[in-house]
Amino acid sequence: MSEKLWFQSAVEGLLLRGVGARLTPALRSRLRELGVDLDHLEPAYPQATMTKAIGVVVDELFADRTREGGLRELGHVFMRGYAETFIGAAMVQIMKVIGPRRTLERMQRNFRNGTNFIETKFEAVGEREATLWFNDVSGMPAFYAGILEEGGRMTGANATVAVESATDASCTFRVSWT
Questions:
Q1: Rounded CA separation 81/38 (Å)
Q2: Three-state DSSP class for 137?
Q3: What are phi and psi of 65, to 5 degrees?
Q4: Beta bridge partners of 160
Q5: For 94-123, what is each residue's pLDDT tens digit?
């Protein structure tokens, strides 16, 4: 595989639209030091750079929470911000029409709008419950759990997401919804 990348739309959704007004000059500077200049977004960023950037944002904005709690909340922030991008707004409209189960079934397609490396596998466990395996969560399963929770809300469902199993890279989530 070529280099693992986050595309501009995902970076814009997370940092410019999601974090947005909470971007302090100090946080902007720390991100710039990592290679993420928010005044001049690149078409794509290496996964390692974005993993570090997410850590910096969690440290700055959610210092009062556990690391996992901050990552999960930043996942919520990401999804709300991504929904404000051109690609994300279209994706959310589709999610609302097809509902939570079909959204989870096509999650790989959804994540491929923002990255070039995330693969997922959906397995139904019940009528309103499934497992969703990710090949790579960059050691931050709570961030991706937050994305799934907020995405579930955007479909009109109340989604609960738990980590069923995880390695440094991959993760299996158990997702249920009402």
A1: 15
A2: coil
A3: -115, 165
A4: 176
A5: 999 999 999 999 999 999 999 999 999 999
CB 60 within 8 A of CB 24: yes
Three-class secondary structure of residue 138 per DSSP: coil
Find all residues with CB under 8 Å of 49, minimum gap 6, and list them.
Answer: 34, 35, 36
158, 152 Cβ separation under 8 angstroms: yes
Whether pTM > 0.85 for this model: the answer is yes
Q: Nearest to residue 146, comparing CAs of 118, 175, 110, 123?
A: 175
Question: In the 3-class helix/strand/coil scheme, how is 59-101 assigned residue by residue?
Answer: HHHCCCCCHHHHHHHHHHHHHHHHCCCHHHHHHHHHHHHHHHH
40, amino acid identity: H
DSSP string, 93-132: HHHHHHHHHHHHHTHHHHHHTTBSS--EEEEEEETTEEEE
pLDDT digits (tens, 9 = 90+) for 67-94: 999 999 999 999 999 999 999 999 999 9
Q: Which helix (H) or strand (E) holds 171?
A: strand 171-177
Torsion, Cα 136 142 145 147, to 10 degrees, reads: -90
> In sequence order, what DSSP letters do the residues of 20-45 get, joined into one string?
GGG--HHHHHHHHHHT--TTS--SEE
